[in-house]
Specification:
Oligomer: single chain
Structural class: alpha/beta
Number of strands: 37
Strand content: 15-25%
Strand order of the largest sheet: 1-2-4-3-5-6-7-8
Shape: globular
CATH topology of the largest domain: Rossmann fold
Distance between the termini: 74 Å
Radius of gyration: 30 Å
Largest sheet: 8 strands, mixed
Low-confidence stretches: 335-349
CATH architecture of the largest domain: 3-Layer(aba) Sandwich
Length: 909
């Protein structure tokens, strides 16, 4: 006799936010024991055939949620141009499915899922989707489904069709879990003796804690909807059982089932099943170790991190769009494949970065010169640098560094960093370079997100690594005592590593084979000035190509020393055969470079080229009065001055000529994803004359620039043209364009989604495309003009306005030092506002906020040619961290909105 259910299955109550009642249905099927049970599930297209939908997404929730978790994905999938059917099952004992009183194990849950899906008689492509422990259940089902299909056991339907596994999407879940590991994250407390029933069944502690994880917080009505099926202790018995089934330890009953799922993941990899791993980095249960395990087991999977998201990943508004974009790109052929798991092959034939060191291994001349604050310097010769790089490479291999492993380098520019970087690349490991200017939080996010295996850093960085629990084994750079080694958790110093390598090489050992050109070489992090810092992946060949392209712009090479006050490019000088000079400054704060420090660096090497950030240029000019005659003579010998990272005003460049009369200042344009893209000198800018935006010159050899025109809503489409006078997003193509973004599949997919004209397609050839996020236009002479960021375009009721040209005209007015154009009000009907730094000599003292005097406002309106809603004066505009130059217009816009609404706005900068 079959025992009746403790609580029968039911339909959810009406009015749950975001849930279409038409999706809910009850389905009968046998459970894992063969007993007929009733499931509640969401089904957006019951009875749909293969011709009606693109396929079916089988979605499985975890604990303590239910199928409500998938409502956003269900709505988006149903509204797609070619809809996907979503089937989201409430597991037995959970949600509104039947309460049977059976303690269900992982094996039973996987079999239950298979049975209810068989009852639905699905046909066509099926993509398994899961989160939390539901991800483990659906992955186990997917592996079993694959075996059924391979064995010809797929069930043929009455209409002749059959279900076929087409893909896997997992979010914040596990591919495996070591038997000797403690319970993951927050589950540790719940599994303590006597605690589990108290926090899961008798009270809502576990449920409410889970619902409190998303950031921003869930609406109270949404939290109530999640709680709806779990109102009584009997309703919550399944929550307790689910936690108890977490296979902790070797003897747990579900340990064999989890091991079987892990083996199933290997089979899915071997079968080449398309997979997407979506991750909320702020999850206290499934931390970074779980994501690294997925990447190791499914190296071909596409990975996308949802910055700021937590455990309930499908609640993030970005989740559903990413899934649908991925389905279109990978399964529907709506977009060209996007490479993110492994580096794509490239036609670049440039030598590796360390080739110049080997070529000059007998040269005793200086390769790196480090200038001290007192003006003295230390020179490291080419022969020593080449030998130290080989010794470090051999030592790192002996220590256990392997090809493909990731090594974070947290060492200031100089000989140690140069040798360590080239040694890491030489052994085939991947260098992770994140600017210390990102700050502790930004660096933590970068190092953690990269999943580094090693950290090479100065003691201060290693102390932070230990305190903040950064991953990876540690090696200390610089002179370090045994006490510091113990305190930081470092197992060796760079000197120790070099000695190990020296002994290894002396014993006849050879360095490993050079990495292939299309192997990943480095992850370079963006500045974070236009959003969270992103890891940009370059292959070895692309790194070499980038160095060659940069060298052509810098006009440097053997016999032409380079002073680099811009940290990332201190590394390229030796690759070009040029002596690299590091000035006395805090490289994390570009504005700390003084004219004296720059002159001392030039004098230390007879440098003919210098690379400065815009903020460094400003401070050099501001401190020029401190120069003595000897230092002025040194600067007068500079022939090439480059400044990049942010726009540099023409008047500023003209003032530079007073210090460096032989130099024609150059401001190459590009980004971490492609640098350089264009090149322009002050003479070129003056020749171009006034225009809308900033002239950044013509594309460098090997680079093509096109424009994706803006529509009436200020959005850029996918078509890319080379016609002059068209305003739109600037798109760059070339062979030294990035390979991909690291673990940001959707971001990378969006950055390469273009339809270039035939002319541009032919010009780029085998190169890659990158959407810069900048807006601008081409002129009749083929020059590129930058008009601002796409995100900062203001859409009024009458027109689409790009900011830079308006700001430049505002800055031409006496009394305005620097200006930011922003919009206030609803999108599509925004009002234009200029927020400006005031020249106090003209305007007088400025408080936190001052409405510009009527006469000044009139002059600004006249100069800009715009009907500005207001002109606000502030002591300073907020800028980014790395460059100290890019205005944070998003922050300015939000602040101006509050000011004009009469709210308390606070200090802007």
């Amino acid at each position: 006799m079959v025992t009746p259910p403790l609580r029968p299955a039911a339909l959810p109550p009406a009015g749950l936010p975001g849930l279409d009642p038409a999706w809910s249905r009850l389905v009968r099927a046998p459970d894992s024991a063969g007993v007929q049970r009733t499931w509640h599930l969401l089904d957006t297209a019951p009875g749909a055939g293969e011709d009606d939908v693109a396929g079916t997404l089988v979605c499985v929730h975890g604990n303590p949620t239910w199928s409500y978790l998938w409502r956003h994905l269900a709505a988006a999938a149903s509204a797609a141009a070619r809809p996907w059917r979503v089937v989201a099952v409430d597991q037995l004992e959970m949600g509104f499915s039947e309460r049977t009183g059976v303690h269900r194990t992982l094996t039973q849950r996987t079999r239950d899922l298979a049975n209810v899906l068989d009852a639905l008689e699905l046909t066509g492509p099926v993509v398994a989707v899961g989160q939390d422990w539901g991800g483990i259940v659906v992955t186990g089902w997917a592996a079993e489904q694959l075996e059924r299909e391979r064995g010809g056991a797929g069930r043929h339907r009455a209409n002749g069709g059959e279900a076929r596994l087409a893909g896997l999407v997992v979010a914040n879940t596990a591919a495996s879990y070591p038997a000797d590991a403690p319970p993951p994250g927050a589950l540790r407390a719940a599994l303590l003796p006597g605690v589990l029933p108290l926090v899961t069944r008798r009270a809502e502690v576990f449920l409410r804690t889970t619902l409190a994880l998303p950031k921003p917080a869930l609406d109270v009505r949404v939290r109530d909807a999640y709680r709806a099926p779990y109102r009584t202790a009997d309703d919550r018995a399944g929550i307790e059982d689910f936690v108890a089934d977490v296979p902790v330890g070797h003897d747990h009953p579900s340990r064999p089932a989890l091991d079987a799922v892990t083996a199933g993941v290997d089979r899915l990899r071997e079968a080449g099943l398309p997979a997407l791993v979506l991750w909320g980095p702020r999850d206290p249960v499934f931390g970074e170790g779980f994501l690294r395990d997925w990447r190791r087991r499914l190296p071909g999977a596409d990975v996308h991190r949802l910055a700021g998201a937590s455990h309930l990943t499908p609640e993030d508004p970005r989740f559903a769009p990413v899934v649908l974009d991925w389905l279109g790109a990978r399964l529907e052929g709506a977009a060209p494949p996007v490479t993110t798991g492994t580096a794509a092959a490239t036609g670049l034939g440039a030598p590796r970065l360390w080739a110049a060191l080997e070529e000059r291994s007998e040269d005793e001349g200086p390769a790196v010169v480090e200038v001290r604050p007192d003006g003295t310097s230390r020179a490291i010769g080419w022969s020593l640098l080449a030998r130290r790089t080989r010794e470090l490479a051999a030592g790192l291999e002996d220590l256990g560094v392997r090809p493909g492993q990731r090594v974070s380098l947290l060492v200031p520019p100089g000989a140690d960093l140069t040798a360590a970087l080239y040694a890491v690349l030489r052994v085939g490991a991947v260098a992770v370079v994140a600017d210390a200017g990102l700050g502790v939080r930004g660096l933590t996010r970068a190092v953690t997100a990269s999943g580094v295996d090693w950290v090479i850093g100065v003691p201060k960085a290693l102390a932070a690594a230990r305190a903040l629990r950064w991953p990876g084994r540690r090696v200390a750079a610089g002179p370090v005592s045994d006490a510091v080694l113990r305190a930081t958790g470092a197992e060796a110093t760079l000197l120790d590593v070099a000695e190990r390598g020296q002994n290894r090489l002396a014993g006849g050992a050879a360095l490993p084979a050079e990495p292939a050109g299309d192997a990943e070489g480095a992850v370079l992090f963006t500045s974070g000035s236009t959003g969270p810092a992103k890891g940009v992946v370059y292959t070895h060949a692309q790194l070499a190509g980038l160095a060659v392209a940069m060298g052509a712009v810098i006009r440097t090479g053997p016999g032409h020393p380079l002073v680099s006050a811009f940290a990332p490019f201190a590394l390229f000088g030796p690759a070009l055969g040029a002596t690299c000079v590091v000035p006395a400054m805090d490289v994390t704060k570009p504005a700390t470079l003084t004219a004296t420090a720059l002159a001392d660096a030039v004098a230390a090497s007879g440098a003919t080229s210098a690379f400065l950030s815009p903020a460094a240029v400003v401070n050099v000019l501001a401190t020029a009065d401190d120069l003595d005659e000897r230092r002025r003579e040194a600067l007068a010998g500079v022939r090439v001055l480059l400044s990049a990272g942010a726009p540099v005003p023409t008047p500023l460049l003209q003032r530079v000529r007073e210090l460096m009369p032989l130099a024609d200042p150059r401001t190459p344009y590009g980004a971490t994803e492609v640098l350089p893209a264009t090149d322009v000198s002050l003479s070129d800018v003056l020749e171009a004359g006034e225009g809308e935006g900033t002239c950044v010159g013509r594309p460098v050899p090997g680079v093509v620039v096109g424009i994706a025109p803006l529509d009436a809503d200020g959005a850029a489409g996918d078509d890319v043209v080379a016609a002059p006078g068209v305003t739109g997003e600037v798109v760059v193509g070339g062979e030294h364009v990035k390979d991909h973004y690291d673990q940001l599949w959707a971001t990378h997919a969006a950055s390469v989604r273009v339809r270039p004209s035939e002319e541009l397609t032919r010009a780029v050839g085998a190169g890659r495309w990158h959407r810069t996020g900048d807006v601008g236009h081409l002129d009749d002479a083929g020059r590129v003009w930058i008009e601002g960021r796409l995100a900062h375009v203001v859409v009024t009721a009458d027109e689409v306005v790009t900011p830079v040209g308006v700001e430049q005209r505002a800055e031409s007015v006496d009394g305005i030092a620097r200006a930011a154009l922003v919009g206030v009000g609803p999108r599509g009907a925004r009002q234009l506002v200029v927020v400006a730094e005031a020249e106090t000599a003209v305007t007088g003292p400025v408080g936190r906020t001052t409405v510009a005097p009527p006469a000044l406002s009139r002059r600004v309106r006249h100069a800009t040619g715009r009907n500005l809603a207001a002109v606000l004066l502030v002591p300073a505009l907020p800028t980014d961290v790395r460059h100290n130059s890019k205005i944070d217009r998003v922050r300015v816009a939000a602040w101006a909105e509050r000011v004009l609404a009469g709210e308390k706005a606070g200090r802007l900068a």
